[in-house]
Write a structure and sequence with these properties.
Distance between the termini: 19 Å
Strand order of the largest sheet: 1-2-3-4-5
Oligomer: single chain
Largest sheet: 5 strands, antiparallel
CATH architecture: 3-Layer(aba) Sandwich
Radius of gyration: 14 Å
Order of helices and strands: EEHHHEEEHEHEE
Shape: globular
CATH superfamily: Gcn5-related N-acetyltransferase (GNAT)
Strand content: 35-45%
Number of strands: 8
Structural class: alpha+beta
CATH class: Alpha Beta
Number of helices: 5
Length: 150
């Protein structure tokens, strides 16, 4: 189900892992998490990919610039935007679309582990921090939860 950003600069695609867009999702996550943040590649892809709904932000005809996923238990994750497209609201668009996916899937609440620098992004979408900061893959995180209205 594609949709475009208000300025037409980016289209969002909802897809399954076995779609033709999988290489594009992989590329975005590799660039952001493995290349930039130095997360080991073997940690980046897991069995949740095959059972999750993925959102891919595409600029132009086929330039993948962001992604995120929603797994079957209501966890959002792997939300990333390539450095050249940050600051344009793409991350917020991805989060909003994942929340729509969660509502349609019947989730009453969702949760995530936010990198602490991204906390405000999630707060703008109704997430509230729970507990204390912790380290995950060598990066400070905070657990966050949002209750969804149907």
């Amino acid at each position: 189900m594609p949709s475009e950003s208000p300025d037409g600069a980016c289209e969002l695609l909802e897809l399954r892992w076995d779609s033709e867009w999988q290489p594009a999702v992989r590329e975005v996550r590799m660039r952001v998490f493995v290349d930039e943040q130095r997360i080991p590649a073997e940690y980046e892809f897991d069995s949740n990919d095959a059972v999750s709904v993925h959102v891919l932000a595409v600029a132009g005809k086929r330039d993948a610039v962001g992604t995120g996923r929603l797994d079957p238990v209501g966890r959002l994750g792997r939300i990333a935007v390539v450095d050249s497209h940050r600051g344009r609201g793409i991350g917020g668009m991805i989060v909003a679309r994942l929340l729509d996916c969660a509502r349609r899937a019947g989730h009453g609440e969702v949760w995530l582990h936010s990198q602490t620098h991204a906390r405000r992004l999630y707060e703008r979408h109704g997430f509230v921090a729970e507990g204390t900061e912790f380290m995950e893959d060598g990066i400070p995180h905070i657990r966050m939860r949002a209750f969804l209205q149907r």
